[in-house]
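Standup notes, structure subgroup. Blocker cleared on the nicotinamide-adenine-dinucleotide input:
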Amino acid sequence: MSAYPKLQLYINGSWRTTDDDLPVVNPSTEQEIGRVPIARQEDLDDAIAAANAGFAIWSQTSPKARADLIRDAAALMRERQDEIAHSITAEHGKPHAQAQAEVIRGCEFFEWDAGEATRTYGRVIPSGPGVKYIVHHQPIGPVAAFSPWNFPMSQPARKIAGAVASGCSIILKAAEETPAGAMHIAQAFHDVGLPPGVLNLVFGVPADISSYLIPNDSIKMVAFTGSTSVGRHLTGIASDHMTPVLMELGGHAPVIVCEDTDVKAAGVTSAIRAMRNAGQVCTSPTRFFVQEDVFDEFLEVITERTAATVVGDGMEPGVEMGPLANPRRINALTELVDDAIECGADLLTGGARIDRAGYFFEPTILANVPAHARVMQEEPFGPIAIVNPVDSLDTAIEQANSVPYGLAAYGFTNRADYADEMIERVEAGNLSINTLEASLPETPFGGVKSSGYGREGGTEGLHHYTVAKNVSHSIKIV
Ligand code: NAD
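Run returned:
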């Protein structure tokens, strides 16, 4: 088994520690497994200077050369898949197989964006003789990015891939609770010879770092994945400086289950997907609206499969769901479940912390949850699914759209008219029909409403990291 790495900051192409640090705890055991250094102001100043120097080099490096180096780094990470996955399971708790899959997904983000780097086409605008109008997409500049703890490797990968493929430099503050995933990425880029300063990795007190970096004149773009409240706060700081933002925020994904679907298959896949990563996924299917004719059958299937979820330490074979990543989530989920029951909801299975070491919470199904219960409006970000009956597709879509979020949404139906209705009316950045997969490297991912602004992945993914410059070129002076 690989050892958990020594945690350090990565600035200007070298590793460093500081005098202050924070504990990193294995959520399955509550044991400390490492200490993550807290960046001081001088470290952030060094990171800004390095990002400026890195940008000067990297923005002048050809897209082909950037793509080759990114692919080399991804190949190293694929070779190190098991070692990286081990760190992820130790710091986050998720099952080792899911951590392995996360590493591959992170590599796929790099590989896709490497390809896109060579396709950031501009365009030629028709003009008269002796004049040319040419639009270039140029890298925007040094990026300040903030990644969360739910996917310790693939979340930082999204941000680093977008920035580095576009020719930007980046200062990434990865999550202090799960720092090793991002460190492994920095190590791979270091090992393949990324020029110093292109990628800088810091940790510390999140508010101290964001409030110092974002207002700095050198920072030309802010990318954040996390809660809507923090995203709104960071957008406010950025807007004072006219700095553009890419915000991937919360979700509370509706699933519309129509009466024509294969109810058993839909129920089983829904249970597995709702409990994946202990529900700590912004696209997690959380609010099920089930047409009345199939409600009882769907509820029975999803409840039975949810109750059968194998919960345990992610390093144990056969475990399907690990602990929550931190104790904050246990309190938040307990409050949401208690409130729902008080409001009249039925608790079908789960609902409480598991009585053992670690931050384990039972896989939970709530049914017939009244609209005024907090869990109907607030993202649970945990292993909770709500299952409610609806009398029509119309009601299901109304309820799906009744929250401030609009990230992922799902539907189960074989009817073209139902699918068409969902495509037209469901408010979400990503709608998936008969699959609970919300995004792939090659598809654009992001939200509407309070779920954020901008897209990662797909051909849209690098837009935010570039600026369009129109060049008007006349042969004669006019
Ligand atoms: P939180 O709101 O305290 O933090 C969310 C994330 O933002 C964390 O990674 C944190 O380090 C970072 N953060 C917090 N304050 C910051 C600041 N001032 N500057 C920069 N970064 C800052 O909540 P939490 O308890 O850590 O996580 C729970 C909530 O976060 C969930 O309800 C969920 O909505 C959201 N979340 C969303 C995603 C996602 O993929 N969209 C991922 C993780 C967490």
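Discussed briefly. The first strand starts at residue 9 and ends at 11.
Next: hand off to the docking folks.
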